From TrEMBL:
SUPFAM superfamilies: P-loop containing nucleoside triphosphate hydrolases (SSF52540). Residues 143-171 form the DEAD-box RNA helicase Q domain. Belongs to the DEAD box helicase family. InterPro entries: DEAD/DEAH_box_helicase_dom, Helicase_ATP-bd, Helicase_C-like, P-loop_NTPase, RNA-helicase_DEAD-box_CS, RNA_helicase_DEAD_Q_motif. This is RNA helicase. It comes from Pseudovirgaria hyperparasitica. Keywords: ATP-binding, Helicase, Hydrolase, Nucleotide-binding. Its EC number is 3.6.4.13. The keyword Hydrolase applies. It is an enzyme of class 3 (hydrolase). A motif (Q motif) lies at residues 143-171. The lineage of its organism: Eukaryota, Fungi, Dikarya, Ascomycota, Pezizomycotina.
Length: 609
């Protein structure tokens, strides 16, 4: 593995060797080695040196650090790893700038530099699935960003991000939002849903932001006494802290050189830190539900009365009954703007029927629904392998597996905090460069773990489900389900999100799962997902394939078949899974004219990459 941990940038090479190894390793592991031998083996195999976690690393107080490191203008310099992710630098507007702010090379490098950017892979056609658009208004999709009618600064920022073409979900969602519709969007993991909502929302606000935004002091005038109340124009809510920070990063990129000021708030960081940030001005607020509710209870800190866009990411998770109180308050509580100009959007890769039903209650009657492929499906770029490993052999089998394939960034999922710590210790003691991410760690430790994993200082991360959704880290080549998610841990939906941490945006990756009798409750669903994604079913699971009945999902409509199994039903037979709105139109760019007649056209390559 090279210094930055990038041995396998090439998915093909990884896939071929790794798949072979996985299949061959699905046996009883070799007898465990003693500590010295396993460390020698790890080293010989090419893994980077493990690094002990430095618990004192962040104990210096912030003022001392900032006083030590200042840039040429006397401003605190960017110190990688020294601060909360929520205090990352963003573009600060000055009224002298006119319509577009000047470039700031140092910030531009941080936001758009290649170090952490996910590069588009060569296998984008995995997303060229049947596209379904439903609703009264179905604006034609865009096939290029240039033709989307975006604000010119947004167009430049999209290019700086390296996005040459909209992904299918972006192709359909961007025009639906630009034409003022509520939207529910479902598309596979890693297919660009974040930009699908951020691009149109921010683009619309770029035109009107100055008129709509609350007054606030410019950065050069900041003092403790001129703080303002945060009055965001867009609020984005998601279930986990790390995902919130990641959406914040995307918003920092897309707001570059504009007056729109994004902020992020989430649990685990002292409330005072977040208050300081949002009270400097906040146009785009990204939040986890708990911290948002906390701030909504403080009307002098945060007001929702200017909000024009509310977006729920990972919506099926947040529509779970556990979040009922939070969600109903966020969607319509406090002083929230309830005018007709307030748009609502929800996105996820999985959307079980119950969550979809609930989602409808928050949406306008004529909301637009966009689905790419079957909701809750995965894609063929993830090579899935299931290995039978008896419980008592799992740890040693994991060690063997890690050493039997080329070192690469690897995410290992377990079902409990205790197991995450135990497994991290086990791997570390064997000499492997591992860290862990779970709810039992302090927020500083969590942020540090993600950073170390992102930078490949510790290319192995053991995580609980807290990292299953949304995390977008470059070159995660291998996801291992050391524990498969049981029904109590989110079942097949959780599996889809976990394995979706690899093979993002046209790249390939491998997902290996350890299976034994403890996982029988997920066996049928696993077989369905694997069959649908054309993955080999291992012998020990063959008896769990239901060959008598056609594969039935409740993730889509009640009688819509899978692509390739005979096609969808005729138009008049299709039941609208979302309610009684006008039924399905599956639209191709060249065929958008026919969509409005309620007909049912299938084009599996609606947007060809
Ligand atoms: N049009 C595009 N061209 C190239 N890359 C893109 C494009 N749009 C988004 N990306 C990149 O694709 C990656 C995945 O995007 P994103 O995290 O939004 O996926 P997602 O669909 O939300 O996945 P998940 O369901 O796992 O949360 C990101 O690194 C993003 O920067």
């Amino acid at each position: 593995m090279s210094e930055n941990g990038e041995t396998f940038d090439n998915g093909d090479a990884f896939e071929t060797s790794a798949m072979k190894t996985v299949i061959e390793s699905a046996t009883i592991p070799a007898p465990p080695l003693n500590a010295a031998d396993s460390m020698a083996k790890v080293k010989e195999h090419g893994w980077v040196e493990r690094t002990a976690y430095d618990y004192k690393k962040f104990s210096d107080d912030r003022e001392t650090r900032e006083a030590e490191v200042v840039d040429e203008a006397g401003q605190p310099a960017l110190i990688e790893g020294a601060d909360w992710l929520s205090s990352a630098m963003r573009y600060e507007w000055d009224d002298e700038y006119g319509d577009v702010g000047p470039k700031i090379p140092r910030l531009e490098e941080e936001l758009f530099g290649k170090t952490f950017r996910q590069e588009t892979g060569s296998y984008l056609d995995a997303y060229d699935l049947k596209v379904t658009v439903e609703g009264d208004n179905r604006p034609p999709p865009i096939i290029s960003f240039e033709d989307a009618g975006l604000h010119p600064v947004m167009l430049e920022n999209v290019k700086l991000c390296g996005y040459n073409k909209p992904t299918p979900i972006q192709g359909y969602v961007i025009p639906a939002v630009l034409t003022g519709n509520d939207v529910v969007g479902c598309a596979q993991t890693g297919s660009g849903k974040t930009a699908a909502y951020l691009i149109p929302v921010l683009s619309r606000l770029m035109g009107k932001g100055r008129k709509l935004a609350a007054p606030r002091p410019l950065k050069k005038d900041w003092t403790d006494s001129n703080k303002v109340r945060a009055e965001p124009l867009a609020v984005i809510v998601c279930p986990t802290r790390e995902l919130a920070c990641q959406i914040f990063d995307e918003a920092r990129r897309l707001c570059y050189r504009t007056q729109l000021r994004p902020c992020v708030i989430y649990g685990g960081v002292p409330t005072r830190e977040h208050m300081n940030e949002i009270q400097r001005g906040c146009d785009i607020l990204i939040a986890t539900p708990g911290r948002l509710m906390d701030f909504m209870d403080r009307p002098n800190v945060l007001s929702m009365n200017r909000v024009k866009y509310t977006i729920i990411d990972e919506a099926d998770e947040l529509l779970h009954p556990d979040w009922e109180r939070e969600m109903s308050l966020i969607m319509s509580g406090g002083d929230t703007n309830e005018d007709a100009d307030h748009l609502y959007m929800m996105f996820s890769a999985t959307f079980p029927a119950a969550a979809r039903k609930l989602a409808m209650t928050f949406m306008a009657d004529d909301y637009v629904r966009v689905r790419i492929g079957r909701t809750g499906s995965t894609h063929t770029n993830i090579k899935q392998a299931i290995c039978y490993i008896a419980k008592e052999h799992k740890r040693d089998a994991l060690f063997d597996l890690l050493l039997s394939m080329p070192p690469s960034r690897t995410l290992i999922f377990v079902n409990s905090v205790r197991m995450a710590d135990m497994l991290d210790d086990f791997l570390y003691n064997k000499g492997l460069p591992s860290t862990s991410m779970h709810s039992g760690r302090t927020q500083k430790e969590r942020e540090d773990a993600i950073r170390a994993f992102r930078m490949a200082q510790t290319p192995i991360m053991v995580a609980t489900g807290v990292s299953a959704r949304g995390l977008d880290i470059k070159h995660v080549m291998h996801v291992i389900n050391f524990d498969l998610p049981s029904a109590a841990h989110g079942g097949i939906q959780e599996y889809i999100h976990r394995i979706g941490r690899t093979a993002r945006i046209g790249n390939e990756g491998l997902a290996t799962s350890f299976y034994n009798e403890d996982n029988e409750d997920i066996a049928e669903d696993l077989c369905k997902v694997m069959l649908e994604a054309k993955q080999p079913i291992p012998d020990f699971l063959e008896g769990r394939i239901d060959e008598t009945a056609s594969i039935h999902w409740d993730d889509n409509s009640d009688n819509e078949e899978l692509p390739g199994t005979g096609g969808a039903a005729d138009a008049d037979e299709v039941v609208d899974p979302w309610g009684d709105a006008p039924v399905v139109a599956v639209v191709a760019p060249a065929d958008t004219g026919s969509a409005g007649d309620g007909g049912f056209t299938i084009d599996e390559n609606a947007i060809a990459w």
